[in-house]
Design goal:
Layout lengths: L2 E6 L6 H10 L5 E7 L10 H11 L6 E6 L3 H8 L3 E6 L5 H14 L4 E6 L9 H9 L10 H11 L1
Parallel strand pairs: 1-2, 1-4, 2-3, 4-5
The structure holds 4'-phosphopantetheine.
Length: 158
């Protein structure tokens, strides 16, 4: 059984993230979406709100779980017996950061592999930060986020 984790801040989860989850399920048996709790970033939604929204978004996909995590990703992987990390790459600008995380995780846990999926053409420009900014200014982000997330963003900024 190939178990993978898809970790991230997901503040909020976008159509780009959803695309990565769906495509991951073609190469692994199960995906745990792990929402980072302990971050210095100022987030719009609490970790529990993010989990709730993502659960609603992926409720019809089989073999997907959504959880929060704090501390090191490698400890989460050890605890859940996961040896594959999934990350999306939108553009070259993502590479240095992802490369650094990849190398660090490998140092921390031998045997942990990271699978990078390049964003699909229509998702490569989507970012959670831009989605938040546009939503806060009343712009249309209906093409960028799944319906449950859109509803929560509208509620937040109404
Ligand atoms: O969506 P993000 O913010 O780019 O995700 C970053 C994330 C959550 C994958 C990364 O910060 C992480 O794994 N943090 C947990 C702490 C950790 O394990 N740090 C060592 C590797 S950077």
């Amino acid at each position: 059984m190939r178990k993978a984790v898809y970790p991230g801040s997901f503040d909020p989860f976008t159509n780009g993230h959803l695309d990565i989850v769906k495509r991951s399920l073609k190469i692994v048996d199960s995906v745990t979406i792990a929402v980072l709790k302990n971050t210095s970033k100022k987030n719009l939604f609490t970790p529990d709100e993010r989990v709730e929204m993502i659960r609603e978004t992926v409720k019809d996909l089989g073999n997907v779980e959504v959880e929060t995590f704090s501390g090191l990703l490698v400890d989460f992987c050890k605890h859940h017996n996961i040896s594959i990390v999934i990350r999306g790459l939108r553009a070259v600008s993502d590479f240095d950061y992802e490369h650094a995380i990849f190398l660090m995780n490998r140092q921390l846990l031998e045997g942990l592999e990271t699978v990078f999926l390049l964003s699909s053409e229509n998702h490569s420009f989507i970012s959670s930060s831009i989605v938040k900014e546009v939503a806060s200014l009343g712009g249309d982000i209906s093409g960028q986020v799944p319906p449950p997330i859109l509803a929560r963003l509208h509620k937040h900024f109404q």
